[in-house]
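User: My collaborator sent over this chain with a note saying "see what the structure looks like." That's all I know about it. Can you take a look?
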Amino acid sequence: MPAEIFNAEDFEPPGTSSGLGTWNVRTIIDSSQQERGSRKDLARKSPDACRFRSSSRALFFRRQFFPGTTLTDWNDWRWHLHHRITDINSLSRIIRLSEDESAAVAHLAKPLPMAITPYYASLLDRGNPLQPLRRAVVPVTAEYFHSPGEARDPLGEERNTAVPGLVHRYPDRVLFLVTHFCSTYCRYCTRSRLLGNGSKSAFTVAQWERAIAYIKASPAVRDVLLSGGDPLTLSDEKLQWLLSRLRRIGHVELLRIGTKVPVVLPQRITPALTRMLRRYHPLWMSIHFTHPDELTPEVNQACERLADAGIPLGSQTVLLAGINDNLETMRKLMHGLLKIRVRPYYLYQCDPIAGSAHFKTPVEKGIEIIQGLRGHTTGYAVPTYVIDAPGGGGKIPIFPRAILGRDGDNLLLKNYQGHIYPYPDPRGELAWKGPLNPS
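Assistant: Without extra context I'll predict from the sequence alone. Here is the result:
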């Protein structure tokens, strides 16, 4: 079957089940040929529409659940924002809700609302509530149980807020929250207090101006991270306004964007956007990935466009129980990221936000995963495992134990295989203060 029939690659996203059911291939071919017949008209209406890959799974999903939607519409990121799945009726059309999911969605009283883009919904397993991607975005009743140590603002960001929307915790960098809006809400979101229902935050140009004035008056700040919400849900014009104002500040050397849009709304990464972004180098981007099933042809193209624009890409992944807390899943994700030119950056221990106990793993699990990666694959595929210390202590790296102690002038080191090697260090005083247990 010719790949161009689907305007896509000729395979489905890896690891997703057949829960959406089977379909009549002849019907898809016939309808696709009709659509292809009017491709010149589509290109005139939206130049980007016919240049964006769309997987066969997305094609079938669009035909089944959004039958009146054209390829031009589907490849328009604004269409996805307008058609987000936000209530039980629209969600139950797409997946068979479990009793627990139904109860959670029908009585959604948590400040964080539910919202899923049609694109990301196309990746959800229709019949399996334990599918990793589904667990990450569909509410469950466990969210309403609060455990000891959980908090509304566990990282103390409000305590370190210099002016509204600007967190200044580290000496030379600031976190600039530019919007409260995300295209898709992750159920473990650290900033759920700021987003959606119950949010009293207002992100206005006046607030942006005040934050930029603070940065301009703080010569120690050389690095600005735009976050939110998700900055890439802003229009090109608003995002350019922010980047251009920040780039005028002489002591700001580095601009960064934290986002999940390339994963949940890859259609947003248009040639127009990347042309604009490349004007503000050095510009880096941290992308939130959760599971290898997110590495679809659409996401591949979104990251390809960003990388081709000269933007270094790093991944940030939260360690989540029952979603990605095993070595094989994490190895597959990290290797897949490198293939689409995204460098694994951070693996986060899940922050203790209210109602997150069902997502948390023991810290030993994170160490076990890093041990299983380090030495067994390229160092480029090994992220730094960190705990963002509650109360505003910042990121603390957690490493597998490698220094075992001293033997005279030698430092005793353990390699990835568990073997112990002496390293000559006659002038050194470094020694492990804990028990000398080589395990």
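A starting point for your reply to your collaborator: The first helix runs from residue 25 to 37.
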